[in-house]
Amino acid sequence: MEFVCACPAAPTIEDGEPEVAATVGSRVLLACDAVGLPRPEVTWSKDGVELEGSGARWRVQRSGSLQLSAVSVNDSGLYECVSSNEAGTARRDVVLSVQGTRRHAYRQDGPPSLK
C-alpha cells in the first residue's frame, strides 16, 4: 500500500537573473517562478510599493513572473516578488534598469514650442 501526503509545502522561488537590463519601449519579464502546496499567492512591489491587480502595462503571470510592456526609464527600480501560502513565504529581488529615450516624430518645422 502506498500513501501520498498532500501536506502543505512552503513556497520556493526558482533562481533567476538578479538584474535585468532593458531598452525603452521593450517588453520585460521579471522571473518569479514560485511553487508550493497549496499553490502560493504571488505579489510584486516596486521600490517598496505593492503593485495591485493588473496595470495597463503589466500583469502577473500564472507562474508568478511579472510581465511589463512598453517599459520606460521610470520603470527602473528594485522589484520584489513575495510568494506566500499557509506553510510559509519566499522572497526574491530583481533590479530593473531601463536605458534609452523614446524617439519622437516631429513635423518638418521641428519640435513643438515649450513657451
Quick summary:
It contains no helices and 10 strands.
Explain what the structure shows.
- The protein is mostly beta strands.
- The protein has strands spanning 9-13, 19-23, 28-30, 34-37, 41-46, 49-51, 58-60, 66-68, 77-85, 88-99.
- The protein has one domain: Immunoglobulins (Immunoglobulin-like, Sandwich).
- The chain has no helices and 10 strands.
- A 5-stranded mixed beta sheet has the order 2-10-9-5-6, with no helix packed on it.
- The protein is elongated, with a radius of gyration of 19 Å.
- The relative contact order is 0.30.
- Mean pLDDT is 87; it is low at 104-115.
Helix-strand layout with pairing:
Layout lengths: L8 E5 L5 E5 L4 E3 L3 E4 L3 E6 L2 E3 L6 E3 L5 E3 L8 E9 L2 E12 L16
Parallel strand pairs: 2-10
Antiparallel strand pairs: 1-4, 3-8, 5-6, 5-9, 7-8, 9-10
